[in-house]
Amino acid sequence: MSDDLFKLNVDGQDIEVPRQYTLMQACEEAGAEIPRFCYHERLSVAGNCRMCLVEWEGAPKPIASCAQTVGDMRPNRDGSAPNIRTKGAYVEKARNGVMEFLLINHPLDCPVCDQAGECLLQDYSFRYGQAHSRFEEEKRVRPVEDLGAGVVINQNRCIMCTRCTRFTTEISGTGELFVQQRGYHSKISILEDKPLDNLLAGNVTDICPVGALLSKDYIHRNRIWNLDRQPSVCQDCSVGCNVDIYHQNDEVFRISARENLEVNGYFICDIGRYSYHNYESIERVTSPMIRRGEVWQEISWEGALKEIFERLGRKKEGERNRVAGIASPFHTSETNFMFARLMQNVFKDRAVMGTLPLPKEDEIKFPAGFRISGDRSPNRRGMAEVSSNLSDDIFSEIKKQKIKLMYALDDGVNRELSQEWKDLLRNLDFIVVQTYAMTPLAEQAHLLLPAAAPLEREGTLMNDKGRIQWLRPSLPILGSSRPDWGIIMEVMNTIGKRELDYSHVSEVLEEMSERIPAYKGVTLFKLGELGMISNGQVKKS
Prior knowledge:
This protein has 541 residues and is an alpha+beta fold. It has helices at 23-29, 89-102, 120-128, 163-170, 203-207, 270-273, 301-313, 333-347, 380-386, 394-400, 419-426, 440-443, 484-495, 505-515, 524-527, and strands at residues 5-10, 13-18, 53-56, 63-64, 83-85, 144-148, 151-154, 177-180, 187-190, 213-215, 228-233, 242-248, 251-257, 289-292, 295-298, 323-327, 351-355, 364-365, 371-372, 405-409, 430-435, 447-450, 459-462, 467-471, 532-533. 24% of the residues lie in helices and 20% in strands.
């Protein structure tokens, strides 16, 4: 046996594990199921809930497997491996006692608790709880408290696992939460002048194992078993955090973190967590629209494509023949790939490509390594990989070449245009904008092509570390809107008299994998839920 390994016998099975493993990890390596409340993979060990008790043969009492390092254990007197039991009457009795203790003050409000259906306390109570409690005294009752940042705490449900306090100390580094008082009177509190107010605060609702910490955004809005879960990717910065989007009947109810150790670990920021609210009150564009003077009129898709052919497709003399194409790092790589093909293969030498001024802020870093990128676009690197000859200053190119035609991919509702850009756009003869909403850019257009909103899109995004991930749609596309890559395909077929017939974004990705080196070998199947690095080799998480 290697000096770096330690031999154990877990439930009759001999195993060897690294000495730095906890006993909990060792037992799980052997296939045992260990219940826990306070333990979390990314937080320091507290060892205070005691649900993870196991039997170490020869020890005077059960031990907390999360707090016991394998390397600190000793072999039996005869030199044989220590015997660990994770099941049996002895262990069951110990866990039953812990569960009875945890439920002393817990209210019987599971039917109205927002954690119902995904609550560890419910699950373990079913397995280890008792039909009757020996506790006959009156239950302690405390009011619900507002902690700040949209988070409330139901102190009556709290089991003092301290995950939340450790999170604000170790992960966010802000330290808003602490344990006030001792013993029976302990409670999670904040200082009067320091509410829970950091950009990672919403994570405490995810890591709370019971229904104590709740998001005001979700309280009493729906039940988890009624919602559909869609694994996807956050689109609010270039980190590309993995998320689960919960939705029902074309409405998003919440977004939570999805584990990916290669990207975001176990957490997401509150910018991404509540981003779906950005699309609730916007003025959607769901059918093609043309501006007649100052009035917008709906037209058919056939009419819109005909207008594009007449205004952009027919060649004219001089500068009025040139077209400025505006790509977007807010769109998928497939959309930008098709857009680049349109500019290069259809408009050819009369096209120039670039982007609108890209939003850039200071990167925000947290003590445990989590970061919010200063690049607030989700696919700048992917856009650059699939688009060649992007101008560094499209504004100057348009002015210098006296370009009068533009085809643009809209960046979204938060895009603000400078007065300089507004003046430039007003001087153009014809502007086509693919958009899902009446944005500042869309307002400057002559023709609007209704496209999918961010939560309706499907395709791939490449984060700032070069990891390609699968963006999956959570909501159906509204009205007569179409996928952005599909719209561009129709335009290419109309102007270039081509016969492209992609029926799904995976077919576009297949062509990208043949043409773009960074996407070689990439398929949606290979990407799965965790993604892959851009050289085509799967990187295991």
